[in-house]
Amino acid sequence: MRLFVLFSMLLSACSFSFAAEPCDIGSRRELFVDDALVDRLIGRAELRLHHPIAREAVIVHDAPWEGNATAYHSVFQDGDLYRMYYRAWRHTHVNNQLVTSKECLCYAESDDGIHWRKPNLGLHSFEGSTANNIVISAEWAEQHGATVGGPAVFRDENPDAPPESRYKTFLISNNPLGMRPFQSPDGIHWSAMTDAPTITDGAFDSQNLAFWDSHRREYRAYWRYFTGGTTTAKEWKPEGIRAIRTASSKDFRNWERQADLSYVDSPEEQLYENGVIPYHRAPHLFLGFPVRYIDRGSVRHSTSPGDGSDQLTEAQLRNWPTSLRALPDPENRDRRAKLSERYGSALTEGLFMASRDGVRFKRWNDAFLPPGIQRPGTWNYGHLLIGWRMVETRSHLEGAPSELSLYATEGYSTAPGTSLRRYTLRLDGFVSAHAPRVGGELITTPVVFTGNQLRINFSTSAAGLVRVEIQSAEGDPLPGFSLADCHELFGDELDRRVVWKGDSELGSLAGKPVRLRFELQDADLYSFRVGS
Length: 532
What we know:
Layout: H1 2-13, E1 23-26, E2 30-31, E3 38-43, E4 46-49, E5 53-60, E6 71-78, E7 81-88, E8 91-94, E9 97-100, E10 104-110, E11 116-117, E12 134-136, H2 138-143, E13 146-147, E14 154-155, E15 167-174, E16 177-184, E17 191-192, E18 209-213, E19 218-226, E20 230-231, E21 236-237, E22 242-249, E23 255-260, E24 262-263, E25 270-272, E26 277-279, E27 282-288, E28 291-295, H3 314-318, H4 322-325, H5 330-337, H6 341-345, E29 346-355, E30 360-369, E31 391-393, E32 403-410, E33 419-425, E34 431-435, E35 440-444, E36 447-449, E37 453-472, E38 492-497, E39 514-531
Parallel strand pairs: 1-36, 24-30
Antiparallel strand pairs: 2-39, 3-35, 4-34, 5-33, 6-7, 7-10, 8-9, 10-11, 10-12, 13-15, 14-15, 15-16, 16-17, 18-19, 19-22, 20-21, 22-23, 25-28, 26-27, 27-29, 28-29, 29-30, 31-32, 32-33, 34-39, 35-39, 37-38, 37-39
């Protein structure tokens, strides 16, 4: 095996791609969430998708104005405070009919992103009382010609945004159908920004989001679309595949450059949500967390949820696949299927994708957040709707660096109220360049950088290692920066400096096209940057 790996390394080293133009990475952090900077993988090296680790349920939506269809969470850190917004909604099954409550937008907050509280805001009445955490009620939205829909709240970091518009979101306009922008000075008190929707081409029956892109100095919006669908003034007629559409704007009112998202090497799949956001540690990269919708039933599948055209009989339920019958909450699954088969037979799970232009994405086809071990409230339609945005939180290990926290739903339409579970991932830890102990290498395309120190986010076993060689654009080792000159790196650290013999600094190479050759043995490399 070792001879084979050595032979493949030698063979691959002779076949560089010299056509690539050098990519100017400056001093920014680069992740391996796509292969844009990967010229070749040698030996047993591969790009490996990692999976968040399940932690505690951080909030349960059991208040009377919330319910078992509560979802569409937005989470972000705002100074020392963590903020959370979510659409509260309840489903009830009555005589084989689906009865839904009115939607409202609710607010929670936290000091650490782990322990959350629902403040008593006293703004909107529910069943005669204002003792709740509602920031936008169904009645308030209706007074403004809108419904709550699937809002995604964000703090606008555009330095030119006026104080009254520091926080923004979209509600769904009723006539014409579309996304209408709303604003707030404090994230609690809201007003309409326009008299009409500003985006009207879409289905909008999912979380519709937008954000300020500081890297490109523009707003970006992402929303639900159906390929082949048609829209009228008051409704969307879905046809084809659930998809994602995007547009950009300079002022949050006039949107242009509409485009449907495309994918490098992914099959056509039904996608709920999109979760797109610039990664805060590398804002030139768009990361997305769509939800894959898979129907594992056997009768027929409707694209018009709840229309009654695919209600199941007891006999049809018995013909379901054996594995579907073995999933949790069978009685509730049967009851939901009698309303519409997909309510009982469809499954959802989290995916991961990345882009450098916000339109064409590398979507990882394996699940990023799979349903996990079977337990009540899981393996159902509405499970693992990933909240928009991730935040840094303290590690559960004393003395360890902070980590990323993501949040996803459980108990959708099965428990009295959905809960939100926290999941954690190391910083930059979405995808790594990985090789087992037998070894492998990753060689980058030509890059141009600034700075004089190469720093990496990596982990190895006690016996593993990482070494780095800097090459010319043609693939020749540069004096003082060869693999043999590099001190072995082992450990598990977010920002380790790479050192060569003689403590060579990189300043003399700044601005020149070079390649980076990473040697890996029982190691993962998550990101790198060249800084001072």
